[in-house]
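Narrative summary of target 7.
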Amino acid sequence: MLYYGTGPVFDEMVTGGGRLRPHWQKFMGALGALDPSLMHERWEAARRLLHQNGVTYNIYGDPQGMERPWPLDMIPLLIPAVEWEKIECGLVQRASLLNSVLADLYGKQDLVRSGRLPPALLFSDRGFQRAVHGAVPTGGVYLHLYAADLARSPDGRWWVLGDRTQTPSGAGYALENRSVVSRILADAFKDGNVQALAPFFTSLREMLVSLAPAKTPDPRIVLLTPGPYNETYFEHAYLARHLGITLVEGGDLTVRDRHVFLKTLSGLDPVHVILRRLDDDYCDPLELRTDSSLGVAGLVQAVRAGTVTVANALGSGLVESLSFKPFLPMLCRHLLGEELKIPGVAMWWCGQKEERTYVTEHLDRLVIKPAFAHLGVEPVFGASLTKAERAALTAKINERPGDFIGQEQLGLSTVPTWIDDSLQPRPLVMRVYLAAKPDGGYTVMPGGLTRMSATAGRLIVSMQHGGGSKDTWVLGRSPSEYRVATSRIQGVPSEVRSMEPRTIAAREAEIRPHSGDLPSRVADQLFWLGRYAERSESVLRILRGVYSRLSDGARPGANDQLVPLMRLMDWSGMVPRDLVDLAESGTGRGLRQALQGAVFDGSHPNSLRANVQRLHRTGAGVRDRLSLDMWRVITQLDRQCEPASARSRVDTAMLLRLDDLITTLAALAGLEQESMTRGPGWRFLDIGRRLERGINCVTLMRGTRIADGAGDDPAVHEVLLELGESFMTYRERFYTTAQRTPVLYLLLCDETNPRALAYQLSHLSRHLAALPRPPMIDSKSQHSPTAAAIRLVDEAREVLREPDIIRDRFALRSALNRLADRLPEISNLLAHAYFSHAFSRSA
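Modeled conformation, tokenized:
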């Protein structure tokens, strides 16, 4: 298959004459013939792996942005060992330089006092967080994680396009890319002697442990995320699981006496290290951005007190601004006594007169970008402007010169990408990650996240603009070559050459998840995950019962059974009351439209889709607590509940679809019981499911009016057994047609029936007794919320033991009314006891 690159720019795989570069020859040989059918099989395998692993990316403003499949190309970017060693040296130097700049600007500010940096460059930038000026982080390290976006110029040299110093994203995606590509291209991966990524994350764990103030022996480390709607939330959950730390949102943390605490079921646990994925100004609504609902009030005070370490340090986003880039060569000579090893793309800050004159006179050859990140202006390519547009841009620059940067337009190198059954060149940007070492210096990930443009020639490479990603393979040397090379090159991190052997047990002893100390928010969401799962199943079974009668008019008693089913839908708020009268005929356009809305209308609060969407959103909030299989089932359920085409809305097709949804919900319930450890998280999830099933059982009885005039209607008894999933049990035990007394006993009082109310109450009693006691002064007294919840469950069980409720309609009606009042109150008591805290463990 022919591949020639794109003319004047550098191509990563071929020379200008179309010949393979030496380090690509072995890979292409192992890849074999690029047969479209074989490549399609490989791509399908990669797509399925990404889907199974739940790898997603959210695009802001895109209706399809939530849970968008991660775009991964099969063909990796290959970097030879010699070239990578130079990149490592240059980036270690650059990370050290930027850390020194931050230390000065948030300390003595000698760079400004001496005139080496213009004051306007610092004090006009909102990225300079005055609230943390003078707060020295643990070990004097501001950049615990650093990433650089690199691009290759037409002459083959690597240049730095941008620095990511605030919350560098993408390392988790790079690891996931490696996991997938190394499996679908196993032979090529093995033959290429590709350097492993895992040691980098081991070093990252060790670094986080070392950041704990006062050398805490067993530090609590958390990853602070903006939440499931963030574009890279998958990575947040992925890294938290991989590093063995707790994923938290701002609401999970609180500051008391200048210490940060995690709200757990057992009280407030001290937090020692925060790996944040939240931008600087959102981290503390008291002293940074006052309208932030994502941060932790008082966090800046805790940082200044030295009781918690935030990585990266608050304010580190300052040096992401392009305004600093023209000054870095000079700063490197001043602070490190060295020349910058990897240059940045040439830039001119318009806040200086000579530089502004150069920019305005050469607009047709430059890219104009905002000098400060808070300006949020898209880059403008001068060559694409008309004469009038250039004049207007020049006027804007002269009006506010400090807000603009002129950047040399760099032709990005291209990399082969599999598109439309052929290899096509696409511009690329490679992001490389570094982590600070406990003893100083930086460790470089041997690889990174390569992103390529969606279209040929497009110079904006961004996932938000539809770009894709690649795995990055740093090819290893033979042992003898590597020893010779490292004797010549200075400054290569030792972790890349070799990892000091350490036992897994020793690593795990340093940092381990506190699985028993469940955050209150997580317990709350798991509780509601169980409730929404059960609520979705309840709605689904009612809908399936209706459609099974509509699609099979010859079914004995079908029309009669539609009446209690429609009454139940009316009671549950699924259809308007006046449509119940149409149930006897089973016809009518209004009935069909109402049923469609009860299934697919997400704006209908009681529809199946609305409940499934609540289930999906709640599951997303605790994604790090769910197995991949559980999350896959939840995602599948959400997709199965998307609106159907007109052809798929006929009664028979709808019935088949509802059957599939029942199966998926059953898979979720099975995974809950067979795959979750029996800790507090599972208990709260099962409490939610048992409580909702109990409430639903009472609703079924009241909605079908079995305690009223319908009590002797066989159609009602049949419907109750079907919706209570107890038909087979009834037939096995009683050998008769459905009758009122045995039906009520089976669905209300039988503690051996998993669908009976008594069974739910029995499990609730055991769960509540096993929960950790909340940190309340009177938690052991009879007046505590936990004790009150247990008492309500006991009272409900006593109600079911009254012999008259299954024989006497008045006793049954009274019992159902009492249960309808008591069961929801259990939820309120649990929320009061466990989902908000005012005391620490020491209180």
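Residues 520-551 form the longest helix (32 residues).
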